[in-house]
Amino acid sequence: MVQPIRIFLGDLTYDTIGMSTEVFPLNVGYIAAYCKKQFGSKVDITLFKYIDELEASIYENPPDILALSNYVWSHRIGLEMFDLVHSQNPNVITVWGGPNFPQDLESQQSFMKNCSSVDFYVPIEGEIGFSNIVEEVLNISELDYKKEILFKKPIDGCISRNPDGSLQFSIPEIRTKKLDEIPSPYLTGLMDKFFDGKLTPMIQTNRGCPFTCTFCVDGADTVNRVNQFGLERVSSELNYIGEHVTNNIHSLHISDLNFGMYPRDLEICDGIVGIQKKYDYPHRVLSTTGKNKKEQIIKAIEKLNGTMSLTMSVQSMDEQILQNIRRSNISVDHMLALQPTIKKVGLVTESEVILALPGETYQTQIDTLKKLLAAKLDYIQVYTCMLLNGSELAAPESRKKWNFQTKFRILPRDFTTLRNGKNVIETEEVVVGSDTLSFEEYIELRTLSFSIFVTNIGLIYDSLLKFLRQNNIEVFDLFFQMMKQIDSAPPLVQKIFDSVKNDMVDELWDSPEDIQAHYQEQKEYEKLLSGEAARNVMQYHNALVRYSCMDEWTQFAGNIVFGLLKRKKIISYELENQLKNIINYCIGLGHNTLGDDRMSTNPEFLFDYDIKNWLTDKNNKTLSRFKLDKKRTVSFQFSNNDSKVIQDELDRQNTDSGIGQALKNIHLQTQFRKPKAISQNL
To answer: CATH top-level class for 179-383+436-499?
Structure first.
């Protein structure tokens, strides 16, 4: 072919009403850097993140090769871009890559049949497989060039079609053992265009996962080996990001699957601390921390001094369920045993639970939540089990074995209208029932998880939860009764709970085709644009509570606690007064955290007890021991810096439906007010 060959590489995000995936396209950056190293001036590569930019470039001048990342959040738009480029030039070579590709041969054949516009698929890591395709293209002379020539023989590292349409591959998956052979997309300047004030920088220090969880696309045996980038390179990339990041971006995303689990991660944390001191960045490090070796991980996170939370990816506390998902090599009990140590060093813990896993029942989920709450985890997020292409759980054999009942739902903010007028919407398949879990139980458990999601936030409700524990009342009972007694809640809180339940049902569809057809009608599509439909139920309603009725929500929680004290017949004037003090303290911390006027609406309360020192007491003394000699007025305030971080994230997300994502990007320690004693009164 005439050189250089033009290559478009994209890891696309929707940005119709805020970005659905907001990280740098680091994955295709690696592929571009590797190809430039291999072929130099023989290739002309352009990277894309935004759909409209890629669409415009295809119309203007289609490339020779269009290669896109395939994830659940960019699957349909990838197919649309392949169809578009072939409508402009049928000779364009189309390449898809990424982990969302079936494991079994039958499903692979079905996948490729349904995606007829895809010429090649590169599973797992893409650098070598894609470069092999490029090399074959370069070896074809212009006179002899026909795309079909590439299909005459298999190409290592990818899957393609024979002329008869069947699949062919020799070595379908090739991993790079020496990762430093891949040039840095940052240090070579390939990422510079993405420092645009909208995207979050992403860095990778290693690849692979030693665990085999069946619900995860990274659980395949092919990625068990962990390979690492050199520490010097990681350090150079961190410095490069610090030099180039804009002042409205406060987060850094580490894409490792088990960060902190390896001894050298301590050095990486030291490097991040150095960057923080030099550039006042990042304020928040987003990462999935390791699933074992928690003592090591605690040391790593402790170095970051509140910048990163410890992720407890427990998924379930039921031994049989853990065996069902091949998670027996992860010590959940050991995780929880370390919780006192974690609390002692002041780390925030986040726990992930998956609802509707194989063998799940109503009671097993309740038991899991009870155990996690008893372990004093700060933040518990319950996800619905997704069936992801590329995971063992999504294979036909697993579906049949567990008799999954599934529905489809729209991925929040993952939609757009193309130039041809077609509305494109991304969907995901979720488990909503099985032989052991009814749909009604699924909805009730999700509603319960919302109550926990909003109320089990350490830093704001620590005092209320400690009060319950000291009076021998299970924390779980608070959240369960909030769900059961919603009719007694303030009207705004009732309205939110009703909206949550309705959305949990309304978001479910029988097929992705039904979803696509429904939202081709403009009046229905407008509901997506307005945020009326297809919002992240948990994040959206959590943000709604925080924005509109946090004080009322806290008061409702206090009323439930009062009822629990009465039920236990331990209520007294002193306990009632303590509870009033605690509720005021919680209201103060959570009041008006998202409003534009947050700096000028500092609530003040008169306290009989020194709640702040009670919370930090290591001897578990009761609140009565912290009675003040004189009443104290406490003001609850934001620092200028915390308020700026909040506002920058809100501005970046820019929509009501994006507030939930903004909260996810802001560290918990930044989201709430701080108490400041301003007087002592007689």
So the answer is: alpha beta
Predicted TM-score (pTM) of this structure: 0.91
Closest CA to 652 of 663, 637, 636, 642: 663
The rounded distance, in Å, linking the Cα atoms of 480 and 653 is 32
CA dist., res. 247 & res. 32, Å (int): 27
Q: What angle do CA 181, 216, 22 make, to 5 degrees?
A: 65
Beta strands in 233-283 (DSSP E): 251-259
Which residue, 175, 165, 61, is CA-closest to 119?
165
**Structure tokens belonging to residue 251:** 């987060």
Closest to 34 (Cα-Cα) out of 25, 23, 24, 45: 45
Q: pLDDT per residue over 240-271, tens digit each?
A: 999 999 999 999 999 998 898 899 999 999 99
Q: Do 205 and 191 touch, CB atoms closer than 8 A?
A: no
Return all residues near 517 (Cβ < 8 A) that are at least 6 apart: none
Task: Give the chain's count of helices (H) and strands (E).
Answer: 26, 20
What are the structure tokens assigned to 199, written together? 């995207």
Task: Please state, in angstroms and rounded to a whole number, the distance separating the CA atoms of residues 587 and 552.
Answer: 9
pLDDT in tens, 296-351: 888 888 888 878 888 878 889 899 999 999 886 666 776 677 777 777 777 778 88
Residue-wise pLDDT for 357-412, tens only, equals 999 999 999 999 999 998 888 889 999 999 999 899 999 999 999 999 999 999 99
Residue 140 carries which side chain, given as an amino acid letter? I
DSSP string, 497-523: HHHHHHHHHHT-BS-HHHHHHHTTSHH
542 token code pair? 């959590």
CB 622 within 8 A of CB 581: no
62-78 pLDDT, tens per residue?
999 999 999 999 999 99
Give the integer Cα–Cα distance in Å for 237 and 204.
10
64, 7 contact by CB (below 8 A): yes
Question: What distance in Å separates the CA atoms of residue 132 and residue 35, rounded to the nearest whole number?
Answer: 10
**What ranges make up the beta strands (E) of 41-197?**
43-50, 65-69, 93-97, 120-122, 159-161, 167-168
The torsion region of residue 403 among left (phi > 0), alpha (psi -120 to 50) and beta comes to left
Residues 6+ apart with CB under 8 A from 475: 373, 374, 456, 465, 468, 469
Q: How many CB atoms lie within 10 A of CB 490?
A: 15
Which secondary structure element, helix H or strand E, spans residue 525, and what is its range? Answer: helix 522-530
**Nearest C-alpha neighbor of 215 from the set 477, 487, 428, 40:** 428
Largest pairwise CA distance in the chain: 96
- Positive or negative torsion for Cα 214, 215, 220, 225: negative
CB 312 within 8 A of CB 339: no
Pairing of strands 206-207, 227-228: antiparallel
C-alpha distance across the termini of the chain, in Å: 89
Q: Indicate the burial class of 405 (C-beta count within 10 angstroms; 0-12, 13-18, 19 or more).
A: middle
Residue 634, pLDDT > 60, answer yes
Architecture of domain 5-168: 3-Layer(aba) Sandwich (3.40)
Q: Return contacts of 547-550, CB within 8 angstroms, 24+ apart.
A: 547/594, 547/595, 547/659, 548/492, 549/490, 549/492, 549/493, 549/496, 550/587, 550/590, 550/591, 550/592, 550/593
Domain boundaries, the chain: 5-168, 179-383+436-499
Place of tokens 């007028």: 421
Give start and end residues of each alpha helix (H) in 182-254: 231-244
- Separation CA 332–CA 261 (nearest Å): 15
397 torsion bin: left (phi>0), alpha (psi -120 to 50), beta (else): alpha
